[in-house]
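Structure (tokenized):
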């Protein structure tokens, strides 16, 4: 990939059922994280577990936090916000850019349209809408 002048690759860095090993390529990467709210680990712990596993072999630049599938989140909006914010703060403490991967419906259901995720990138999925061109 580097031969073809790609400077970054986008891949999933953490999934609740991920047991595979990553192959180091020397590229800068942006990763997305699908957190597990049923885990005994905090959001920050899940982030750090992922980041520590990646940073020895990869130049991680950005972490994208997947905030979708409301049925997999807590019914408590405040717990969801605390969980999301703990990941954001842990990522920033490690010098990473943070992005949120979501859509309007899921964000509303999970966070009640929380606006406290300041200075984050937004990858806005429009999968719930019909788009006509």
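Design, position by position:
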């Amino acid at each position: 990939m580097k031969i073809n002048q790609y400077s970054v690759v986008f891949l999933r860095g953490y999934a609740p059922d991920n047991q595979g090993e990553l192959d180091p390529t020397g590229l800068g990467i942006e990763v997305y994280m699908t957190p597990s709210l049923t885990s005994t680990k905090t959001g920050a712990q899940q982030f750090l577990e992922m980041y520590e596993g990646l940073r020895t072999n990869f130049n991680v630049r950005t972490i994208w936090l997947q905030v979708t599938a409301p049925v997999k989140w807590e019914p408590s909006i405040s717990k969801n916000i605390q969980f999301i914010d703990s990941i954001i703060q842990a990522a920033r403490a490690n010098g990473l850019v943070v992005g949120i991967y979501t859509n309007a419906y899921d964000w509303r259901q999970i966070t009640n349209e929380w606006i406290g995720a300041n200075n984050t990138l937004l990858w806005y999925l429009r999968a719930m809408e019909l788009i006509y061109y």
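Reviewer-requested clarification: The longest strand covers residues 59-66. The mean pLDDT is 83.
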